[in-house]
Amino acid sequence: MRTAFGVALTAIFLITASGASAGDKTGVTDKTIKIGLFGPLSAPAGSAKKNVYGAAAIYKDINDKGGINGRKIELIIEDDACDGAKGIAAYTKLVEQDKVFLAHGAWCTKVALAVKPEAAKHPHVPYMVLGAASAEISTPFQKNLYHPVATTITAGNKMVDFALSKPGVKRVAIVGHTDQWGSAYRAATTARLKENGLTPVIDEVLERGEKDVSEHVRKIKEAKPDAVMALLYPDEMEWYLREAYKQGLKATTVGATAASIDDTNKRIGIPEAMNDVYMCFPLRGTLTSPEMRKFADIFKKYYPGEALDSHSFYSMDGAIAVVEVLKRLGRNVTRERFMAEIDKLKKLEGGAGPGYISFSPADHRGMKFINIIGLVKQKEVIFQKHPAAH
Predict the structure, then answer these.
(1) Position 157 pLDDT exceeds 90
(2) What digits encode the pLDDT tens for the residues 324-383?
(3) pLDDT attached to residue 388
(4) Which of 42, 202, 218, 261 would give a disulfide with 223, using CB separation of 3.0 to 4.6 Å?
(5) Helix axes 49-64 and 316-329, enclosed angle (nearest 10)
(6) For residue 7, is pLDDT > 90?
(7) Are 369 and 150 in contact (CB under 8 A)?
(8) Please, what CATH class does the domain formed by 32-150+289-368 belong to?
């Protein structure tokens, strides 16, 4: 009886051990790895949908080159419309219904912050953020969440440092939104100014959709700033700069990561309105530089009808990191092994971003670099390129 009991225990142990060693292979077959991608395909934020396309292009390119260790990526794409509730629905569908191996999504901060607690309910599912920047996404730390783009702290610090590097800049104004994205940038820029012994001469609130910004610009002009931190989305950035030019507001303008210099320049169509205007730039080189040619070719191969701008490349590094980790895993792909391996990722080069990506078991803020870009005679020029940039 003891012998039979012992045999039974041994059998149970072997079955359990076998299951444990197999690990969680949800979304993985002999020939495919299922990845769920979601982002603002129908968002009002201009060219934001290109962030989805950029990540998708990296995955499709890998497939066309033979896949990863004998497997192709099966991509399932959902639209979150830059809406928190829709983001949660997209994430939940991908994880619970489609049974993806990992989730990759959220360009809008409010979507990423809405999805974060949902991802915490699925701690075994790796979640790579698409492109949202708020520092609150990766702080506090969450074991299964990976943030591959510069946060609002990194970008906000850079904005202030660049403005203060300009001769004679001592009076700094802030104009921006009060949503989660704008609030995160406002906190970062205000804190950096305080570190330099400064407080904003005016902190003007400009909410989404306020097309008539004349009164906001008038108030800022009366405050006589030397520089303005413009924490604005693409539409509002266009309206603000157009009105600032109209009213003759002479101040260095530094924008955050939502608007792009090339898209804003095209929207306004007045070269003089872009004088002394700079923006955070999340790429290693200008769009037409040799550094970006490879990434431009990949994007245009799969989305030939889309014009290139910085949003076309912003999300690529997260996808490149996912691909790199999957390559390192060989044929034994499990969620546990993926999460252990990505925490070993150190100084991953070769991406479209301004520097390398690193993750550790205690820090999932993967990108700690950002550049500043502006126009010189209508030609894009990167200023103060980070020494860690490629």
Answers:
(1) yes
(2) 999 999 999 999 999 999 999 999 999 999 999 999 999 999 999 999 999 999 999 998
(3) 53
(4) 202
(5) 30
(6) no
(7) yes
(8) alpha beta
According to DSSP, residue 346 is labeled -
| pLDDT value, residue 22 | 65
245 CB-side CA count, 13 A? 16
Q: How confident is the model at residue 389 (pLDDT cuts 50, 70, 90)?
A: very low
- Supply the DSSP symbol for 24: -
Query: For 153-281, CATH number?
Result: 3.40.50.2300
> Is the peptide bond between 361 and the residue preceding it cis, with omega within 30 degrees of 0?
no
Summarised one tens digit per residue, pLDDT across range 49-92 is 999 999 999 999 999 999 999 999 999 999 999 999 999 999 99
Angle at 304 between CA 302 and CA 308, to 5 degrees: 100
Tokens at residue 153, please? 């702290």
Q: Which residues in the chain are classed under CATH 3.40.50.2300?
A: 32-150+289-368, 153-281
CA pair distance 83, 71, nearest whole angstrom: 33
| Distance in angstroms (rounded) separating the CA atoms of residues 342 and 328 | 9
- List, for residues 342-351, the tens digit of each pLDDT value: 999 999 999 9
Contact present, 321 and 366 (Cβ < 8 Å): yes
Output phi, psi for 251, to 5 deg: -160, 145
Give the closest residue to 325 by CA, choosing from 339, 311, 310: 339
Q: What sign does the dihedral 110-112-115-121 (CA atoms) show?
A: negative
- Token match 């609002």: residue? 152
Q: Is 278 helix (H, G, I), strand (E, B) or coil?
A: strand
Total-model pTM: 0.88
Query: Taking a C-beta distance cutoff of 8 angstroms, is the pair 36, 105 a contact?
Result: yes
